[in-house]
């Protein structure tokens, strides 16, 4: 940024863990382009602690007070999912661009409602899908556009994480009304977004979701078989009951297999490229032939960099609009298939019904079997 350009005035709503460990470091990394002017947080003690630690002058208990006093250019929403809609709408109405944590909204209907408040040249609301923005993923996307790997054939998308019983003692977690779903909505959404970023439009999904071990309203495991418009097939698994945590995506093309394995973020070293046998002899070090020279990790920092560029140009950023809606639409279809026992086709999706106004039909219940619930009680008493 030149000396004549004013920094972007940024403010945060929510001062919890995601703000402290992800968003504030990302904002601070762009301190040559951003001035952090305020934060809103109803917990006064947390508000003071975080504001003191990061040197944030404006301190407010509500979003409305923050917007009225600071008039930020960029509002960063770090609240629990149930509060996303109101905070994003308030920011857009105040003329601020908005960057909101995942999941974007609790439903497709909420997402579409928010879009009404965007302008033709901004402000826009965009959402955190940082795994798209690492250099290796962006290079793979270019390979597909250039058709250098052949057609995509088979893919695997696994988010196998572990969350304790105590994790779900936080009142808003594991509930449809406040979190919008289980690991499908709150954890695997990043990997599924990257899957869709690489393979494009899906055409149908057949899924199963269940409660295996956690005492939740939502699922703690889901599995899906997916077909894409390219003809590619994918298996998708989301779990919060897997002790060895991994985030793993594999793409099998006609001419190569491309894999990435990490937990919460990758860089170029997390990726592996294996040429098909008919090409293997053409390169002694195949990985170097497709990985970019620049090693940019997947991160909030990199996504924010692109968002700031879009703000300068008054252009819609990636992970907003239809591009941000895509994975939410897929998740709604996955839940519909799991709860109805039917294959759901993208062409059959409607702008009405329980899977448009929510991710879940309230008539369908998830619960531990009596035997598993009894086993859990015994384990807790040991």
TrEMBL record:
Residue ranges annotated for the GFO/IDH/MocA-like oxidoreductase domain, each copy included: 138-246
Gfo/Idh/MocA-like oxidoreductase N-terminal domain residues: 9-115
Biased composition (Polar residues): 364-375
A family per Pfam: GFO_IDH_MocA_C3
InterPro entries in alphabetical order: Gfo/Idh/MocA-like_OxRdtase_N, Gfo/Idh/MocA_Oxidoreductase, GFO_IDH_MocA-like_dom, NAD(P)-bd_dom_sf
Source species of the chain: Nesterenkonia halotolerans
Segments of this protein annotated with the region Disordered: 341-382
Key word DNA damage present: no
Protein name from the UniProt record: Dehydrogenase
Superkingdom of the organism of origin: Bacteria
Keywords, in A-Z order: NAD
């Amino acid at each position: 940024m030149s000396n004549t350009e004013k920094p972007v005035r940024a403010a945060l709503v929510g001062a919890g863990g995601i703000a402290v460990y992800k968003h504030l470091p990302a904002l601070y990394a762009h301190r040559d382009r951003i001035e952090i002017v305020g934060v809103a947080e109803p917990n006064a003690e947390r508000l003071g602690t975080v504001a003191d630690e990061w040197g944030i002058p404006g301190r407010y208990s509500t979003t409305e007070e923050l917007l009225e006093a600071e008039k930020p250019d960029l509002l960063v929403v770090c609240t629990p999912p149930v509060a996303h809609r109101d905070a994003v709408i308030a920011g857009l109405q105040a003329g601020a661009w908005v960057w909101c944590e995942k999941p974007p909204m609790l439903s497709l209907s909420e997402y579409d409602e928010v879009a009404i408040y965007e302008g033709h040249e901004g402000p826009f609301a965009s959402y955190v899908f940082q795994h798209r923005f690492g250099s290796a993923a962006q290079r793979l996307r270019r390979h597909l556009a250039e058709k250098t790997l052949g057609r995509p054939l088979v893919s695997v998308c696994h988010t196998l994480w572990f969350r304790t019983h105590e994790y779900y003692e936080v009142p808003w977690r594991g509930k449809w009304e406040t979190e919008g779903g289980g690991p499908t909505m709150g954890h695997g959404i990043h990997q599924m977004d990257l899957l869709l970023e690489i393979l494009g439009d899906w055409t149908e999904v057949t899924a199963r979701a269940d409660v295996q071990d956690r005492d939740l309203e939502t699922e703690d495991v889901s599995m899906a078989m997916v077909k894409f418009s390219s003809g590619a097939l994918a298996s998708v698994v989301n779990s919060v009951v897997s002790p060895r945590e991994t985030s793993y995506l594999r793409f099998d093309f006609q001419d190569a297999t491309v894999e990435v394995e990490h937990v919460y973020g990758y860089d170029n070293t997390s990726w592996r490229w294996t040429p098909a046998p008919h090409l293997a002899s053409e390169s002694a070090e195949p990985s170097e032939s497709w990985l970019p020279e620049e090693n940019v990790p997947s991160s909030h920092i990199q996504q924010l960099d692109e968002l700031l560029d879009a703000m300068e140009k008054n252009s819609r950023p990636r992970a907003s609009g239809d591009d941000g809606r895509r994975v939410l639409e897929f998740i709604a279809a996955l839940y519909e298939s799991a709860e109805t026992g039917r294959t759901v086709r993208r062409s059959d999706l409607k702008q009405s019904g329980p899977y448009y106004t929510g991710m879940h039909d309230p008539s369908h219940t998830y619960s531990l079997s009596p035997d598993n619930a009894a086993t859990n009680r015994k384990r807790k008493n040991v």
